[in-house]
Design goal:
By secondary structure, the protein is an alpha/beta fold. It contains 15 helices and 22 strands.
Length: 560
């Protein structure tokens, strides 16, 4: 594009986000919440086409609480908040039960000291609609649907992108400081920046069928659940309620490559799998392939990848959408900090350094879950109506309880991930806790998620964190030391909220006198005394250490 001749037609915006799924919307909300304008383009005419994810985990819901939309998401719950998030394993929906997991993914409402928001079973398209409605209300956030990215180039002054309005067929020229590719597994942004997905394609072939089935919930004896794993030799599969209006999903797993499921054949397959003969109305049938991939790079200059554009894994464990939302959070606040002048280049570089190890951790968990599906759980004679069949079912049920708890009780993964090797985290030399997928052990160790607690007024500790940095101080912390830090941060234009840990329980969770917490609620630093001045510490955790060093050196030269 000729920048000089086309200047009068260029849309100028600080950040261009490509893709209006949960990842792109999370990025836009982080930016908009900080009054940083952005343009979000999406080639489809609306959000929420496919059912995809159905679990919004506790960490994603905590982000939504911070954004002020947790209540809206609760209200959008199609099955109701009190609907039990049980996972039932059975031979068929009409057959005997093998075992069950209650309160899978921690969806049960109520206060829990470990987190501020419970998880929620809700279709991804409903989540996207709540996020979209919020994003459109934020000042400076513009959403443009029916608009696809064609190409982009970048230079020292930003990114120049060419998009096309699919309604008018007109090209749209955009000049942005940064571009975020949240455009999914077939990312054009990834291809254009020369990045590649590395890993294994085709771990299994599977189908996702959405159908309407009035009376199906009453046609079996297993009671309400969010998922029923049907472990049988004929059609091993998952099935469960998805939305209002008797809408269900049906997922045959590890389907033979020679089988091509047509929509007209789906009702009979559902009957075979469930053993229940009802009039099934098929709404959609989609094939999907489980794979494991990580991008070989997440950034090129001013262009970043987030979500499925840089990582893909099997959906077992409910990590995918949620991990992408946290990508958008991490990238969004960091770009905003840089554009607002209090964040530096190292802060942007920390995105891949922080998120990639988390992606690898979750990928490993998801692949491990994928290795044990219905076909692997089946044993001959398991469906027999006999003492021998009952004994086999009891044995298989015990095996499921031991092996699949890793999939449905995952708080150690969801909340226990850490940014140990981040260049903007100040390590304190304390030993790193071991990985435990189920047992989340809160710690204020730098890089970890700040421990949650409920305050005596009923509010969450997180509710009192600032949109920038938060300095959590013990009651014993000297007032003058805190005031000096506040004043210096103000002079440096670094947003800093001061918060006192008044309750004894909170002080015990944060054993050092001071803890510095980032906008994403991760601990950046802790210690028993604040450095004086605090400039170097703030420069480190905001990614401006190199810039601060250059400024100090220049000042020293002027003095000499």
């Amino acid at each position: 594009m000729d920048k000089n001749n086309e200047t009068h037609n260029i849309v100028r915006v600080p950040v261009l986000v490509v893709g209006a799924g949960p990842v792109g919307l999370a990025t836009a909300i982080e930016l908009g919440s900080r009054t940083v304008p952005c343009l979000l383009i999406e080639r489809n005419d609306r959000v929420g086409y496919a059912p995809r994810a159905k679990t919004t985990n506790v960490r994603t819901r905590e982000h939504m609480r911070r954004w002020g939309i947790a209540k809206q998401l609760r209200a959008a719950s199609p099955l109701g908040l009190d609907y039990p998030s049980n996972v039932v394993f059975c031979t068929k929906l009409s057959g005997p039960e093998l075992t069950r997991f209650e309160n899978a993914f921690y969806c049960a409402p109520g206060r829990n000291p470990l987190y501020s928001e419970h998880a929620q079973w809700i279709p991804q398209y409903s989540v996207e609609e709540v996020m979209r409605a919020h994003a459109e209300k934020l000042p400076g956030v513009a959403l443009r649907f029916n608009c696809e990215l064609l190409s982009f180039t970048q230079g020292d002054d930003g990114v120049y992108a060419v998009a096309r309005d699919l309604t008018t067929k007109q090209q749209v020229h955009i000049h942005a400081d940064y571009l975020v590719g949240a455009d999914g597994a077939r990312s054009l942004v990834r291809e254009a920046m020369g990045a590649k997905l590395e890993g294994t394609y085709g771990l299994s072939r599977n189908y996702n069928v959405v159908f309407r089935a009035p009376g199906l919930a009453q046609a079996h004896q297993h009671g309400p659940a969010i998922m029923y794993w049907q472990v049988n030799q004929d059609v091993p599969s998952l099935i469960g309620p998805m939305d209002r209006g008797d809408k269900w999903f049906f997922m045959p797993t590890q389907v033979d490559p020679s089988v091509k499921l047509q929509p007209a054949d789906a009702p009979d397959l559902i009957r075979r799998a469930t053993g229940i003969d009802l009039p099934y109305e098929v709404l959609s049938t989609d094939e999907w392939v489980a794979s494991q991939f990580l991008g070989n790079q997440y950034r090129s200059g001013r262009v970043f990848l987030a979500g499925d554009a840089c990582h893909l894994h099997p959906p077992f464990g409910g990590y995918g959408m949620n991990m992408g939302v946290s990508d958008g959070v991490d990238l969004g606040w960091k770009i905003a900090a840089v554009l607002q002048g209090w964040g530096g280049e190292t802060l942007l570089a920390s995105f891949e350094a922080e998120r990639r190890p988390v992606h690898q951790l979750v990928l490993d968990e998801a692949v491990a879950n994928h290795t044990l599906l219905g076909r692997q759980l089946w044993q001959d004679g398991m469906d027999a109506d006999s003492p021998a069949g009952a004994a086999i079912r009891q044995s298989v049920g015990a095996r499921i309880q031991s092996a699949k708890i890793r999939e449905f009780a995952t708080l150690g993964v969801v909340l226990g991930y850490r940014y140990d090797h981040s260049p903007v985290i100040v390590a304190d030399g304390s030993p790193a806790p071991g990985h435990d997928f189920i047992n989340y052990r809160p710690t204020s160790r730098p890089g970890a998620l700040a421990p949650h607690a409920w305050r005596h007024d009923g509010s969450s500790l997180y509710d009192h964190f600032g949109s920038g940095l938060t300095l959590l101080a013990h009651p014993s912390a000297p007032k003058d030391e805190i005031e000096n830090a506040r004043q210096r941060a103000l002079q440096l234009r670094v947003p800093l909220q001061i918060l006192r840990a008044e309750e004894a329980g909170i002080a015990e969770l944060y054993p050092t006198r001071y803890t510095l917490i980032r906008p994403d609620q991760h601990v950046a630093w802790r210690g028993d005394s604040l450095p004086a001045p605090i400039d170097g510490l703030l420069a480190h955790i905001t990614g401006r250490l190199a810039q601060a060093s250059k400024t100090s050196a220049a000042a020293a030269l002027e003095v000499n």
